[in-house]
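Let us work through a complete example step by step.
Step 1: write down the sequence.
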Amino acid sequence: MIPLKLELSACCYRAMLGVGGIGSGRFFALNGNQTLGREESRSGRFLERRDYCKLHIISHYVQTLLGPRFTTIPIGKVGDDDAGKQLLAEMQAAGLDLRYVQPSAGDPTLFSFCFIYPDGSGGNLTTDDSACSRVDAAFVSEAEPEFARWEGCGIALAAPEVPMPARRRALELGSQYRFWRVASFAAEEIASAIDDGTLAHIDLLALNLDEAAAAAGVSSEAETPAAVAAAAAGRLGALQPALCLAITAGRRGSWTWDGSSLVHLPAVTTAAVSTAGAGDAFLAGMMAGLVAGLPLSQAQGLATLTAALSVTSPHTINPLIDGRSLRAFAAQVHFPACQAVMNLLEV
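Step 2: predict the structure and record it as tokens.
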């Protein structure tokens, strides 16, 4: 894999420590578009798609894009089962530092069963008694020596699919050791993150459109995407003036807010095989750009390109993404990247 072309002396950060879900899943294509009934039996077929959870997806792309000179340390748990062993092997092959990913005896690895209707809509069923549910604040605190080691030059990531206390602890350690602090929340978690003061420990909040609407207290169906993004920036900016936002809206593009300017970038038009994991790919591209010293709006360009290439794979981690493939893809779709982004894609 060919990473982005970085001048190490220009890099703002040298390591990422992140907490969040690590698990796998399967995709099942249902026959018929009618909504599945409570007691209904429905035929279908499994799809050849590999599903991964948020911390794994983000960590994989960050490490792949930034290369071996950057250290990526996921903090989490998997089951002591075949699925967990397979995930650990894949994460190790990607170059992740796995000292703080621990098998949890007696607990299964987090698993999602994703069902898809012929029209492309669908849903998923996710285990709530997995090893990820055992990730608590005390477990995250075991990684404090690594926070201390990278003081002032690290990124702390708090991603969903583990309990909130563990995520808050990662952000608190990030605050204590002067990290750039990044978080995302499910829509139903936004209110508690606002109410309990978690925003004070976040520098960059990544949201999809529904999550942004929940944060703003508006409806994503009643408002335009641009109005939702502006409302989220207005409300969250008033609560935490230094907070930056990254808001994704699929084919309608993305918005970033740096505390003063709301910037929209259109999505890249490409043949999408699966959009699952695109938001996580976007966030990873954003962080890679920030590590390289790009301002938020330019990092948004790299994030947009990464997300667009991610959806050309059936898997939630596109194994072909690296610096070389991003540059070839940018040329193929005539992506209007700024010169700073194109410099990173040189190989």
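Step 3: interpret the result. The chain has a mean pLDDT of 94.
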